[in-house]
């Protein structure tokens, strides 16, 4: 057998994706991300962003970013340990620690990068990681990078977690054992059972790691899922992103001072990749200031989420088990989910189909992400389009 050329490989793979309806054409958004976006010159009600609080184009963040560019330029100049640590980074990290109720925090260039960095700085081939089966791709990759033994437990299945934790602990095969979970699962909008996870972790001396990318700014009056359950003192790693509710870009880990010091000494994206830019850093700090100063945006987000979910449910859509503003409409068949999304688009609603492998096969869905910035009129318009398309395709 001769080996494939790159072109043969790519042609085969892309053809297969297209055949299975899994090839995603990427739309170009003209202008800012907000509750209404423009694509090909046409306005659409946007129900696909993670811009939960509408901060991505907030005037206060924009003003802060412009000021930071004037005072600190556009780039950090180096990795943090060489001479890229700006006073702005320290200000941001102090605010993050305050926001999360921890001793310290460290920022990274993205949430994805954070999981690459933090898991492998602490876990190695002599360790084991208990990982929820629906954890985010960046957790899966971070675990792989660490070379620890990954042991998957059923999604939010506490019996399975306890059993596997017990087996791992009693085997005495591992130096350290970690349990890692999303705080909010973004495909269904359900919240991790952190009280039980913490109880199991304390029973078997597990390290605890919560990736709260979709919880921060959303749950716990905005402070996140760990705060929602009052577990700030009992979770070792509180990881989050600055790119979703915070509206900018970047990631962070909050925890005890010794953990943060170790990550500053040993985590590779911190040591070998240039720090967040001044504008991103200060805009993120501004967002945290807004969040810590008022729950107004958070309340509006929940109000909009509850409203949209209620209206779609009334129409007969299956909105699943969401406990957060995330509102999936589960359709099932992949191709039908994609057709549904396409028809919504043509009618002026931007809500993307999410299909295998992002969600299990046969659970294709259109996922709606209402934000604090949507008006009731926008949501009503979206609901009436849902009704029209739902009837047309025989879904309701
Ligand atoms: C989005 C997301 C990330 C990655 O965050 P970025 O800042 O976008 O890189 C990590 N974990 C989870 C659970 C996410 O949803």
What does this structure look like?
With 396 residues, the protein is of the alpha/beta class. The chain folds into two domains: 128 residues, Aspartate Aminotransferase, domain 1 (Alpha-Beta Complex), CATH 3.90.1150.10; 234 residues, Type I PLP-dependent aspartate aminotransferase-like (Major domain) (Aspartate Aminotransferase, domain 2, 3-Layer(aba) Sandwich), CATH 3.40.640. 45% of the residues lie in helices and 15% in strands. The strands form three sheets. Strands 3-9-8-7-6-4-5 form a seven-stranded mixed β-sheet, with helices on both faces. Strands 1-2-11 form a three-stranded mixed β-sheet. The protein has a three-stranded antiparallel β-sheet with strand order 10-13-12. Strand 6, helix 8 and strand 7 form a beta-alpha-beta unit. It starts with 5 loop residues before the first helix and ends with a helix. The mean pLDDT is 96. Bound molecules: pyridoxal-5'-phosphate.
